């Protein structure tokens, strides 16, 4: 049977409430029990409520011949303290309907209950009663009203209370600031902060924490912290420094974080466990794992949160054995510890260890199940992932659905991913940014522009279109599906594009051979103050290579490390070799490879080999191909190019030897393919492929077209010859 929520407005609209509680009118008569007995009973109720013995307290309350306002408030407060919100609201309703006058303590306590329980309707009813009683100008009542609206994300209601009462109640400034921060309305929060009559460390920390948590606000969080220290108004506390350290971690700003680590020691917070955990996470985020380990060892008796942070960092850096050592030493382990190690084993290819640890877990949470779905999907065991997904029925969260959709996509079952999305949509499961990111990736793999556009229409109806994470997936999908104009529009829709979003569009331009446009976009990015990363330079160098912009490409390569501190990787070197090779500078490309500070891999040499084949530099092809075979004897493309070279040179014996070696290695070149999209279905075609369900009709049509083309060619040849003869005759 469903419990009906209590109503506080009954006496206003229904006379039957007065009749129902008529016997309680006797409570207004002079007390029959001495005053000291009431006081002692109230003290006993308070004591039992503090101990959590609410049933005992309630029995005492119910047995009282007469309950005072203090008795009611004590019992309501007890229910509130121990999270029994329904009972607290029900008792308040009974109190009101018993004609007991609610005072400022009743209102502030019950509004707090509504805030914690998300009881919006009941809170608004209480607001009506507050206005009727005239108690809204009491400091605690006004504060409780604003807190209720802010906690229930009813920000307009909170603003109305603030506008009416803030002149008489200074507490409302801090509460309004918290409300805006909770709703991620940072511009409004900053406006309130700037107008505050006085700002303590809590106000500064609230605003800094809001920016530190927001997607693109970490830089501003650090700027606010610098202003806070420069103002001399307050001294940062442990919570301020915790937020600042975490912001440095999200930005990957190692230098700034180390400065703040020094401040932390100066203020004497280095032994605070919460801050130590933040420091470990910061150093892990900045890939300074040895510094993270030093902080951990310095703690002496690290807590579980700190241990989990370090385990996560070690796993991210691929140091699974070190993570395993810390995990094995833990006296106490929680599901987070297990989940980290399960994922760590999977990422290092030890799926059996992941499975063994998962089976050992005594307390499996939905996060554990989601992690294992990810593990099975990553290992290609999609059936096991699906079985686990079915077992989560009733406790699934959006991450569960997203994990399964990503699993389907990773295992090339993109249609199944979309079927799951439709089920999710039908069941009204909340979508997250990861939902759309996974599906746009599936559209990219399918090469389905129509499907991507349909999904984009769904995104427009959500708050995610302007999100950098989803917007970047859109840009990538449209670029790879051949629609650069749509990619540009999607990029323009992102509210605050980060370096990944800029890089995605640069890569799109590169993919379509739009080198000049890519360079202009790169310059715009720099003007916006966005710092390029390694991925950005891969994209811009590729764009220069495809557009033949050799000088510009080499200039960008040289400033990459000198101006932006990006150390070139093999991928960057491969781009430069491709840049030089495509433009015919083969000797310079070979010399560049020899001068590299790290040994070139198959990809770098392969870029040179492709250029040699394009420019038909036969003398270079053999030498470069042999270098590739020394690194990877099974390099298929090198075998194919070498075989084709021997064919052109008429060296049929050498060609047969290469082909024989290729067959002996059990290698086969992946055939080229083409595809068309028809009625939201993608049809893929390979040479001599007969797996398509309509292949007979396709080949019959192809034969018909071929015969028509041949007859037209013969007619043109004959007619052209006749014309020449006639012309010669005249």
Question: Can you offer a commentary on this structure?
Answer:
- The protein has 730 residues and is mainly α.
- Among the domains are: 586-669, Serine Threonine Protein Phosphatase 5, Tetratricopeptide repeat (Alpha Horseshoe); 673-729, no CATH class.
- Helix content is 72%, strand content 2%.
- It contains 41 helices and two strands.
- A two-stranded antiparallel ribbon has the order 1-2.
- Helix 36 packs antiparallel against helix 37.
What is the compact description of this entry?
This protein is mainly alpha-helical and 730 residues long.
Write the layout of secondary structure elements.
Elements: H1 10-13, H2 16-20, H3 35-51, H4 54-63, H5 69-81, H6 85-97, H7 104-117, H8 120-133, H9 139-151, H10 155-165, H11 171-182, H12 186-195, H13 201-213, H14 218-231, H15 238-251, H16 254-266, H17 273-285, H18 289-298, H19 304-316, H20 320-329, H21 335-347, H22 351-360, H23 366-378, H24 382-391, H25 398-410, H26 414-426, H27 433-446, H28 449-460, H29 468-480, H30 484-493, H31 499-511, H32 515-527, H33 534-547, H34 550-564, H35 570-582, H36 586-594, H37 602-614, H38 618-631, H39 636-648, H40 652-664, E1 673-678, E2 681-686, H41 695-729
Antiparallel strand pairs: 1-2
Short key terms for the protein model shown above:
2% strand; mainly alpha; two-stranded antiparallel ribbon; Serine Threonine Protein Phosphatase 5, Tetratricopeptide repeat; disordered C terminus; 41 helices; elongated; single chain; 72% helix; 730 residues; 2 strands
CATH architectural label of one domain: Alpha Horseshoe
- What percent of residues are in strands? under 5%
Instruction: Give the CA-CA distance, first to last residue.
Output: 106 Å
State the name of the first-level CATH class of one domain. Answer: Mainly Alpha
- Tertiary shape: elongated
Helix fraction bin:
over 70%
């Amino acid at each position: 049977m469903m419990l009906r929520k209590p109503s506080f407005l009954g006496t206003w609209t229904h006379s039957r409430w007065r009749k129902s509680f008529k016997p309680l009118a006797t409570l207004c008569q002079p007390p029959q029990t001495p005053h000291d007995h009431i006081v002692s009973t109230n003290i006993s109720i308070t004591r039992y409520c503090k101990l959590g013995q609410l049933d005992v307290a309630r029995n005492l309350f119910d047995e009282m011949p007469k309950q005072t306002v203090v008795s009611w408030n004590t019992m309501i407060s007890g229910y509130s303290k121990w999270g029994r919100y329904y009972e607290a609201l029900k008792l308040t309703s009974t109190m009101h309907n018993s004609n007991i006058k609610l005072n400022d303590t009743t209102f502030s306590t019950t509004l707090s209950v509504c805030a914690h329980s998300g009881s919006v309707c009941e809170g608004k009813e209480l607001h009506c009663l507050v206005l009727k009683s005239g108690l809204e100008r009491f400091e605690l009542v006004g504060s409780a009203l604003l807190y209720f609206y802010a906690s229930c994300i009813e920000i307009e209601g909170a603003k109305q209370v603030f506008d009416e009462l803030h002149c008489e109640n200074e507490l409302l400034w801090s509460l309004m600031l918290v409300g805006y921060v909770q709703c991620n309305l940072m511009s409004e929060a900053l406006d309130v902060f700037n107008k505050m009559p006085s700002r303590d460390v809590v106000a500064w920390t609230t605003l800094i924490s809001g920016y530190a948590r927001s997607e693109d606000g970490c830089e501003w969080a650090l700027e606010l912290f610098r202003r806070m220290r420069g103002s001399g108004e307050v001294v940062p506390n442990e919570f301020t420094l915790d937020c600042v350290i975490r912001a440095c971690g999200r930005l990957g700003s190692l230098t700034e974080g180390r400065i703040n680590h020094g401040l932390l020691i100066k203020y004497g917070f280095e032994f605070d466990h919460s801050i130590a955990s933040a420091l470990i996470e910061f150093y892990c985020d900045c890939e300074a794992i040895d510094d993270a380990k030093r902080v951990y060892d310095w703690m002496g008796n690290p807590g579980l949160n700190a241990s989990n942070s370090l385990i996560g960092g070690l796993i991210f850096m691929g140091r699974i054995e070190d993570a395993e050592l810390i995990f094995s030493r833990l006296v106490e382990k929680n599901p987070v510890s297990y989940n980290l190690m399960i994922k760590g084993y999977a990422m290092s290819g030890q799926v059996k260890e992941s499975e063994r640890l998962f089976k050992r877990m005594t307390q499996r949470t939905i996060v554990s199940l989601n992690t294992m779905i990810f593990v099975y999907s990553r290992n290609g065991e999609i059936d096991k992932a699906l079985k686990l997904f079915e077992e989560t029925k009733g406790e699934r969260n959006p991450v569960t659905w997203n994990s399964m959709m990503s699993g389907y996509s990773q295992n090339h079952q993109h249609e199944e991913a979309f079927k799951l999305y439709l089920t999710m949509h039908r069941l009204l499961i909340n979508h997250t940014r990861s939902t759309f990111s996974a599906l746009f990736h599936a559209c990219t793999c399918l090469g389905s522009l129509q499907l991507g556009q349909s999904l984009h229409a769904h995104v427009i109806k959500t708050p995610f279109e302007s999100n950098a994470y989803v917007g970047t997936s859109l840009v990538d999908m449209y670029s790879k599906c051949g629609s650069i104009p749509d990619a540009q529009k999607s990029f323009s829709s992102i509210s605050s594009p980060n370096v990944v979003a800029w890089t995605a569009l640069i890569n799109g331009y590169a993919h379509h051979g739009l080198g000049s446009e890519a360079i202009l976009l790169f310059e715009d990015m720099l003007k916006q103050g966005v710092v390029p990363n390694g991925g950005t330079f891969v994209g811009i160098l590729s764009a220069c290579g495809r557009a033949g912009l050799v000088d510009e490409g080499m200039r960008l390569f040289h400033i990459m490390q000198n101006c932006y501190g990006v150390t070139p990787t093999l991928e960057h070197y491969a781009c430069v070799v491709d840049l030089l090779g495509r433009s015919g500078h083969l000797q310079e490309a070979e010399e560049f490879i020899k001068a590299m500070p790290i040994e070139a891999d198959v990809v770098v040499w392969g870029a040179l080999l492709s250029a040699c084949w394009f420019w038909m530099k036969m003398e270079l092809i053999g030498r470069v191909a042999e270098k590739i075979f020394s690194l990877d004897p099974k390099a298929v493309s090198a075998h194919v190019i070498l075989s084709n070279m021997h064919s052109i040179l008429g060296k049929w014996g050498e060609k047969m030897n290469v082909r024989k070696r290729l067959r002996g290695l059990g290698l086969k070149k992946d055939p080229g393919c083409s595809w068309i999209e028809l009625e939201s279905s993608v049809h893929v075609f390979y040479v001599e492929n007969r797996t398509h369900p309509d292949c007979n009709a396709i080949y019959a049509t192809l034969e018909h077209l071929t015969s028509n083309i041949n007859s037209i060619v013969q007619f043109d040849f004959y007619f052209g010859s006749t014309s020449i003869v006639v012309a010669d005759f005249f």
